[in-house]
Structure formats: C-alpha cells, structure tokens
C-alpha cells in the first residue's frame, strides 16, 4: 500500500489549523500577556522535567542553545522561570517553573481542554472514535520524527 501523495500535506494542514484556531481562541480567554509558541514550549519542557538544564532543554526542543538561553532570559524576566545554579556544576543552570507560570499553564490547559472537548461533542460518534483511534499512530509518527531530528 502506497502513501497517498497528499496525505502529509493534509495531515500537517489539519494539525496546524486546529492548533492555530485553539491557540487564538484560548488566548482570548486566558488573561495576561501573550506568550509566543517557543516560550510556551520551553515552559512545557521545564514543567515536565523540573531542574532541566538549558542544553538539555535545547536538545528537547531541537533549538540552538543560544536561542533557548534567550528564551530563558525573557521568561526569567517575566517571572515565569527560575534559574538556579546547579550544585554539581556551578557553571550550569537548572530551570524551574514559577508558581505564576504553573497557574497560567493550568489556566491555559483548562481553557484548551474545554474548548476542544466542546468541539468534539459537536462531532459524530464515528468521527470522535476515528480521532481517538488515530492518536496512537500520530504519537508514533511524532516519535519517528523526533528520532530523525
């Protein structure tokens, strides 16, 4: 079985379209200054891996170390990240999400989940089941793409 020629483009268009609409609608619901995608992604990485270093976060995000350092500086200044000296290597920093960032991310997650859940309620049961059935394959695709990076 061959891959349909437009599958990759349709997949990316659908995923990016959903993400863009959700981001725009959630931004209107959640108070506070807008955080660009790269900052939000860094906060997610640090939230999942408290104490992660800048270099490890850069690898996780597939970004250059100096780009992540810039993001860290902005988020520290905004009160969203704490940078602490690594006791094992005084030259390295360990990153922690602040309480303010935890609250903002929880609020954002609640709004995003509510929005998407409400939209899923408007789909047919067959469509919802199809989306649920596709999730494991999409997660495997994500893993394959990460491995190739």
Short précis:
With 149 residues, the chain is mainly α. The protein is 69% helix and 10% strand.
Description:
This protein is mainly alpha-helical and 149 residues long. The protein is 69% helix and 10% strand. The chain contains six helices and two strands; from the N terminus they run H-H-H-H-E-E-H-H. It has helices spanning 7-29, 37-48, 54-61, 65-77, 99-121, 125-148; strands at residues 81-86, 89-97. It has a two-stranded antiparallel ribbon. Strand 1 (81-86) and strand 2 form a beta hairpin. It is globular. The two termini are 26 Å apart. The model has no long low-confidence stretch (mean pLDDT 91).
Kindly report the spatial arrangement of strands forming the biggest sheet: 1-2
Element order: H for helix, E for strand: HHHHEEHH
Helical/strand content category:
mainly alpha
Q: Mean of the pLDDT scores?
A: 91
Biggest beta-sheet profile: 2 strands, antiparallel
Q: What's the alpha carbon Rg, rounded to whole Å?
A: 18 Å
What features would you highlight for this structure?
about 150 residues, mainly alpha, 2 strands, single chain
Secondary structure elements and pairings:
Elements: H1 7-29, H2 37-48, H3 54-61, H4 65-77, E1 81-86, E2 89-97, H5 99-121, H6 125-148
Antiparallel strand pairs: 1-2
């Amino acid at each position: 079985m061959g891959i349909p020629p437009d599958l990759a483009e349709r997949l990316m268009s659908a995923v990016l379209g959903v993400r863009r609409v959700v981001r725009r609608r959630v931004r209107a619901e959640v108070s506070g200054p807008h955080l660009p995608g790269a900052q939000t992604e860094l906060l997610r990485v640090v939230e999942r891996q408290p104490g992660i270093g800048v270099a490890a976060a850069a690898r996780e995000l597939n970004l250059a170390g100096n780009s992540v350092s810039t993001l860290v500086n902005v988020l520290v200044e905004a009160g969203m990240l704490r940078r602490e000296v690594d006791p094992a290597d005084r030259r390295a920093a360990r990153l922690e999400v602040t309480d303010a960032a935890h609250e903002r991310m929880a609020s954002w997650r609640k709004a995003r989940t509510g929005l998407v859940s409400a939209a899923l309620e408007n789909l047919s049961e067959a469509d919802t089941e199809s989306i649920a059935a596709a999730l494991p394959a999409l997660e495997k695709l994500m893993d394959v793409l990460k491995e190739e990076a």
